[in-house]
Amino acid sequence: MGNTEILKRGHLQLTSAGTGISHSEKAHGPSEVHFLQIWSLPHTPRLPPKYYTRQFTDSQKTNAWVRVVAPAGAEGVEAEREGEGPAPVQSKLTLYATLVGEGKVLRKGLEGRKGYVHLVQTSGYNPGKANGATVKVAGGEQEAVLKEGDGVYITVGEGESAELTVENVGSQTAEVLLFDL
Which CATH number, 2.60.120.10, 1.20.1260.10, 3.10.420.10, 2.60.40.3930, labels domain 11-180? Predict the structure, then answer.
């Protein structure tokens, strides 16, 4: 497809492999790179390959849920390669990102029947005991405390709705992803 790009903090790259692509990644420069690679199965197989990039600033995400990926065709989702708003995905996945400040609480209603909350590891490689940010996640009757790199699933029963609460109970800003499925 001929795409070459340097991604920086807050950048999102969405590649839909579809009928097949060749893909490679490499770090430029002397420092290590920390990123998340997330796969989602499409609802329709063998679609043509697509490539999208988006940028979301820390100020946009500070103490607010920002929709960074959403189903193609959903309200506010542009199909342009470098459009505004969430990147389009060919599945029933909506992905939100936030930076939760110390002592702050964010709430979000889940649209799907399950969710996954991931506390991004921003404190660097650490083979020992978890450090860095800490959040408390509650949804329905479920509750968990997450350290950097941890995640938790939230399930919603048939006909029920769930409000998710993420509270920063640590001493650092917490970078959190919410997968609404």
Answer: 2.60.120.10
